[in-house]
User: Which sequence fits this backbone?
């Protein structure tokens, strides 16, 4: 049987106002910072900055108001996050699939699947991480960074400390990639003369973590690279919903086999609505002004969710997690650069 998990409305909504306002205020500050030229040149988007600001505030002044704000912060981190994931679908269209073709789809699928498999195997077997941490870091590295981690967390019921650690890994290594990828391009081109800016863009989009990081790394090489990188990245983002559905089915299957839960598959409602949003946007059924407005609202919701996650992140929890999550994130980072390059070259050669 299948269980569709739709949200319920919380009681006494006024108790959520202080925490919600705090998360929105920090999100506004992060958005303002991300628009500064010196910050934008580093590829640090509003989502990344929101969690950084949230972590700083959460480990300093937040303790004084935590009792009043915790309820609203938790609401923002969970319910509003899922709504933000749904609205993210209005950024994408099915038509974008045709722009990269079967070649781009194959590259993204192979990169996503291999990266997540390595995360599961290396995280559990080599590093001894718990399953949730390995899955979260794998999802962030293989799909779309922090947004994928935040969307995966509720599906596997991971606690906030593990989510925060996983986000930290993609922030660290994704930020490094912004500077590394443009430096690698001249060397790669000298080794492979047939390597065009567009091919490098597909490689960038299929292997880099965050959308903002992809834009920054592609822009540093050239407009052709940037355009191809964004399209390849958006294709990976569109794979988030099917990934969540498959992961949810796997979680229920393994749980039912162990006898801990019933056999019904719990399908996350926001993953299905994400697909609906993509389809609506592809068919142009909504006015462009409305879609633009929904995108702006989505920016606020996702930034607020990241700020809320930062507010509930404690340095003590990160220290307790140890170096193993960073080691896994580093291993996946190396795989994305080297293994992702091999996947891109192989597919490009086979389809040439």
Assistant:
């Amino acid at each position: 049987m299948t269980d569709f998990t739709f949200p319920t409305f919380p009681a006494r909504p006024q108790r959520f106002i202080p925490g919600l306002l705090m998360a929105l205020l920090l999100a506004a500050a992060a958005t303002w910072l991300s628009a500064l030229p010196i910050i934008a040149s580093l590829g640090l988007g509003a989502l990344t900055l929101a969690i950084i600001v949230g972590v700083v505030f959460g480990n300093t002044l937040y303790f004084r108001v935590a009792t009043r704000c915790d309820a609203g912060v938790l609401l923002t981190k969970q319910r509003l996050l899922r709504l933000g994931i749904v609205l993210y679908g209005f950024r994408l269209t099915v038509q974008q699939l045709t722009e990269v073709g079967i070649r781009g789809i194959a590259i993204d699928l192979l990169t996503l699947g291999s990266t997540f498999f390595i995360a599961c195997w290396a995280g559990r077997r080599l590093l001894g991480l718990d399953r949730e941490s390995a899955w979260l870091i794998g999802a962030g590295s293989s799909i779309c960074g922090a947004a994928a981690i935040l969307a995966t967390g509720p599906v596997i019921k991971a606690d906030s400390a593990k989510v925060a650690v996983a986000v930290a890994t993609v922030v660290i290594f994704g930020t490094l990639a912004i500077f590394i990828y443009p430096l690698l391009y001249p060397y790669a081109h000298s080794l492979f003369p047939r390597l065009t800016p567009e091919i490098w863009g597909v490689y960038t989009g299929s292997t880099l973590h965050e959308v903002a990081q992809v834009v920054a790394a592609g822009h540093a090489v050239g407009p052709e690279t940037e355009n191809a990188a964004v399209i390849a990245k958006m294709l990976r983002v569109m794979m988030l919903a099917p990934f969540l559905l498959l992961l949810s089915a796997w979680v229920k299957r393994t749980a039912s086999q162990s006898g801990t839960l019933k056999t019904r598959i719990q399908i996350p409602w926001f993953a299905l609505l994400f697909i609906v949003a993509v389809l609506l946007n592809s068919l142009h059924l909504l006015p462009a002004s409305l879609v633009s407005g929904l995108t702006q609202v989505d920016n606020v919701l996702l930034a607020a969710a990241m700020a809320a996650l930062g507010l509930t992140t404690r340095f003590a929890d990160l220290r307790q997690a140890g170096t193993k999550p960073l080691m896994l994130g580093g291993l996946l980072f190396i795989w994305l650069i080297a293994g992702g390059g091999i996947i891109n070259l192989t597919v490009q050669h086979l389809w040439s």
